[in-house]
Input
Amino acid sequence: MSERDMTLEQALEQVVAETFSEMAFLDAIRADAPPDSNETQVFVIEVRGDTTHHLILDLPLETKQAIVENIHARPWDEIASNDIDDCLLEFLNVLGGAFGRLYWGDESRYKLSFPEVRIGIPEEIDREAMQTFWFDAYGNFFAVHVGTE
Output
């Protein structure tokens, strides 16, 4: 395993802040888990370098709406459902790529899987080994779960 300048947590926190700011025009900062943290629709991507990480973006409806409306610059009800999913999957793809570059370094080699829309956290991910990081984007709470193989 190579030496890293930052931890997984630091890399994740930075890429979430940058991706939300640059793509969705939202400030996303670390937060404590909200009291009503029900699992919602999730978006999953696998980032494979010297280890494999599953990044799982766990978004409540309000956060999904804020991201999509800001990226498309149109109200939610004017955007086709397949465009909504495509937008969120591309958003996750950018987040996964940024994570790989930051965590393993600019010169490193890593691969991204195709991002997927899932209902709930995939069964193949070990929930006990999974780390969860909560964020707040203007009062919209969401989680990024990281499963490591």
In short: The domain at 8-142 is CATH 3.40.1550.10 (Chemotaxis protein chec). The CA atoms of residues 17 and 28 lie 5 Å apart. The longest strand covers residues 140-148.
